[in-house]
Specification:
By secondary structure, the protein is α/β, with parallel strands linked by helices. It has helices at residues 44-51, 73-79, 95-105, 114-124, 137-149, 167-181, 217-222, 236-244, 269-279, 294-305; strands spanning 4-13, 18-28, 33-37, 59-64, 67-68, 80-83, 155-159, 186-191, 202-207, 210-215, 228-232, 249-255, 258-263, 286-290.
Length: 306
Amino acid sequence: MNAISIQHITKTYDKGNVTALNDISLEVAKGELFGLIGPDGAGKSSLFRILTTLLIADKGTATVDGFDVVKDYQKIRGCVGYMPGKFSLYQDLTVEENLTFFASLFGTTISENYDLIKDIYLQIEPFKKRRAGKLSGGMKQKLALCCALIHKPTVLFLDEPTTGVDAVSRKEFWEMLKRLKEQQITIMVSTPYMDEANLCERIALIQNGELLSVDTPEKIVGSYPQQLYAVKADNMHKILNDVRGYENLQSVYAFGEYLHTTFKNDEANESKLTAYLQQKNNSGIEIKKIEPTIEDSFIRLMTEKS
C-alpha cells in the first residue's frame, strides 16, 4: 500500500474562477522522499492542505497512510507531521515551550520521542530558552521540524521548508531529511528550487495546478528529446533578439549568463549559428553543447503544455 494516494483531485477558488489544482493523480510509496516541484502559485500548498485535512477538494479522493482525507481526517491528523510554508509556531513561547506544547497536544513528551529529533534538536538546544520569534530563519526551520516530528508521524509534509533560508541552512536541512528517511518516515516536500529536485527519489513537476511529469529526476532529465546548446556573446540583449530570428530555431530562453537553445534539426548548428550571428555583428560569440537540467526539462514541459 502506498503512503499517499491522490486520485483526480481538483480544487478551485473564487467560485470556480481560479483553478488551483486540475485533475491531480499521483502515488507516493512508503518510506519515499518525494518532491513536489513548481513555482509560486503552482498549487503546491493547496495540495498539501488537502492531504493534511485542512482543505476539502472539489473533486477526487486522496488517502494518507490508508486513511481517507475526508472520512478519516482525525486519524490522519494523529499520524502526520506538517510544516507549513509560513512559520506558524508561537513566537512568544521559547523553543522548549513550543516543543513541549506540541508534544502535549499529541499526548506524548519530548523525552519519549527524543531519539527521533535528537540530531536536529541538539543544534537548537543552546537556544532553548530563547523566544521563537527571536530565532534566525535556519533555527526557526529546525524548531518547526522538531515540532512536526515530536509525535513520531508516519508521513511528513514539508511545504517549501527552505524558502528564504540561507544556502548553508538549506544544505543542512536536506541532510536532516536524508537521516529522517532512514527511520522509514515517508517525506513529501514541496519547493520552488529546481536544484533541490535532485535530492529527492522521485519528483512531480507542477505548474498552474497541473502535473507536467512524475518520475525520478534522472529519468525526467534523460527524456529531454533534443540536443541543448548554451549561447553567449558580448551583448546578450542583442544576441537574444538575433537568435530568435534564426530560421532553424526551436526554442530559446535566458539561463544565467547564457541563452539555452534548441533547434528544429541538428545539422551543423554550431557553425551555422555562429556564421549567422557574425553576420548580425555580434562579438565574443560562444556556442557549446550542454546537458539539460531539471529546470530545462521543466521549461520544455511547461512550453509544450501551454
